[in-house]
Recover the amino acids of this structure.
């Protein structure tokens, strides 16, 4: 499966080298990233969900297996923080790194490239499932435990977290797609063609934008043996333990078939490297930034081989 994975990583590398060579402003890089986040990926997710049957969206075994993997990985991140004497709210950043992957920017393109359009719907749903819990957990934890001098009620903290999630363009696109699906509203040809054009560019552009984002991470002075060893438990939880738990819960507990595209995509999306979104929150709350940057790069390099092995194994089942 290197024939699928390597080209995808080459697009990421192309974005990385392009940004390093051209040294354009942060605003230019942000523009490309915003195009992916606000236009291309939402179009892909909307189109996939809007054309799906309601039964395809209400696949509860898939939802439970995915959330189980996220929950276990997050809690292992909390336990790891406790061993390192990292208390809340900072521990939530470490836990987020242990469970939050590049599902939108990398997972969706890989799933569709490997398994075709059949993987589009579960990949779209998984993207939202992987975004909501970790983001809400960090926002709520910092709202409850931070000592910034501002007293906030539990309801205002929760509403703030929900608002952040609902205003996410990826979430909005999935909700809009569900509206069309559940009410059996056929997509007008103009809307279908329009979103189809944008969706076609989503995968390559997202990967290229990911490379540009990685080029801006401060890693040179922090990639050393000590930090790699220190971060290895977090990376192992994200890349290996999370997909393993997803598989165990889906296959053995919930009885999903090994050939079920929903189980396959759930495992694949759980096995993605640590997402750049963790770095965004680490910067926002000024904690774990450099370590997050290093863990993103290392996990990305490891998944060149781990995802190839995983895809090779899973494609034999279909």
């Amino acid at each position: 499966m290197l024939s699928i994975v390597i080209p995808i990583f080459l697009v990421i590398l192309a974005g990385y080298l392009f940004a390093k060579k051209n040294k354009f402003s942060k605003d230019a890089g942000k523009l490309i990233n915003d195009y992916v986040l606000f236009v291309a990926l939402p179009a892909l997710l909307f189109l996939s969900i809007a054309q799906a049957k309601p039964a395809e969206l209400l696949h509860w075994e898939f939802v439970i297996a995915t959330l189980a993997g996220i929950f276990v990985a997050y809690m292992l991140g909390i336990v790891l923080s406790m061993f390192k004497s990292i208390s809340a709210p900072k521990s939530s950043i470490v836990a987020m790194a242990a469970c939050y992957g590049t599902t939108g920017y990398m997972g969706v393109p890989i799933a569709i490239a490997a398994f075709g359009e059949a993987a589009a719907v579960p990949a779209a749903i998984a993207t939202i499932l992987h975004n909501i819990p970790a983001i809400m957990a960090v926002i709520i934890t910092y709202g409850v435990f931070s000592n910034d001098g501002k007293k906030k009620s539990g309801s205002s903290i929760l509403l703030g977290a929900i608002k952040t999630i609902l205003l996410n363009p990826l979430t909005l696109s999935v909700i809009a797609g569900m509206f069309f699906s559940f009410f059996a509203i056929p997509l007008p040809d103009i809307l279908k063609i329009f979103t189809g054009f944008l969706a076609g560019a989503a995968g390559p552009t997202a990967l290229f934008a990911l490379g540009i984002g990685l080029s801006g991470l401060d890693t040179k002075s922090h990639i050393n043996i000590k930090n790699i060893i220190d971060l290895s438990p977090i990376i192992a939880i994200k890349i290996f333990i999370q997909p393993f738990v997803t598989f165990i819960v889906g296959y053995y507990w919930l009885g999903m078939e090994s050939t079920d595209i929903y189980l396959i995509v759930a495992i694949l999306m759980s096995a993605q490297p640590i997402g750049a979104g963790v770095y965004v929150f680490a910067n926002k709350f000024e904690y774990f930034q450099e370590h997050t940057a290093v863990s993103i790069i290392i996990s990305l390099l490891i998944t060149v081989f781990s995802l190839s092995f995983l895809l090779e194994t899973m494609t034999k089942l279909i």
